[in-house]
């Protein structure tokens, strides 16, 4: 009988240790890898407001007042910016053009800002995380260059429907 009791205590103690290790890992990922504190267990979700991102795009040849708010594929391709400082890939950028096919082939500037909350002094503002320029070398090939969280980001991708 005592063996069953000890086994139960051992299992519960092991689960407690694993839980505490996950909390420490989650806090490390949030602080050092810019992980969204609301994801993967969300132990920091009560200390910060939900991060929201804004997409500001300028496509040459279109009115500056043109709104580029249609972004479901762009958001999904970028994991809703759970890790906003993740390096860009061709699939990430192609999501914008899936949402906005009339921008294909035109020079595009993308600026993604994420709402940031600071405690001291108390303020909430949108901070730029992704700032890239996308050019098209031909009808199916695009090239991007810019910054993602202060790091240089550049690459080339193929566009296909």
Write the layout of secondary structure elements.
Blueprint: H1 2-32, E1 53-59, H2 72-77, H3 90-99, E2 108-118, E3 123-136, E4 141-148, E5 151-158
Antiparallel strand pairs: 1-2, 2-3, 3-4, 4-5
Helix content: 25-40%
Let me know the average pLDDT: 80
- Shape call: elongated
Low-confidence stretches: none
Q: Determine the number of helices (DSSP H or I, runs of at least 4 residues).
A: 3
Task: Explain what you see.
By secondary structure, the chain is α+β, with helices and mostly antiparallel strands. It folds into two domains: 1-32; 53-158, no CATH class. The chain is 29% helix and 30% strand. Strand 2 and strand 3 form a beta hairpin. The longest helix has 31 residues, at 2-32. The protein starts with a helix and ends with a strand.
Q: What's a concise summary of this model?
A:
With 161 residues, the protein is an alpha+beta fold.
From the structure above, extract its key features:
161 residues, alpha+beta, 5-stranded antiparallel β-sheet, elongated
């Amino acid at each position: 009988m005592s063996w069953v009791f000890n086994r139960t205590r051992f299992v519960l103690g092991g689960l407690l240790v694993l839980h505490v290790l996950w909390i420490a890992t989650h806090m490390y990922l949030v602080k050092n890898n810019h992980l969204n504190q609301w994801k993967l267990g969300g132990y920091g979700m009560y200390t910060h407001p939900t991060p929201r991102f804004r997409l500001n795009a300028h496509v040459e040849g279109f009115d500056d007042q043109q709104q580029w708010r249609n972004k479901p594929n762009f958001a999904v391709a970028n994991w809703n910016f759970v890790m906003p400082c993740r390096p860009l890939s061709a699939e990430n950028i192609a999501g914008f053009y899936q949402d906005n096919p009339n921008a294909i082939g035109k020079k595009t500037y993308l600026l993604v800002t994420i709402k940031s909350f600071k405690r001291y002094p108390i303020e909430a503002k949108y901070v730029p995380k992704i700032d890239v320029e996308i050019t098209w070398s031909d009808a199916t090939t695009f090239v991007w260059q810019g910054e993602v969280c202060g790091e240089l980001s550049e690459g080339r991708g193929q566009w296909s429907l």
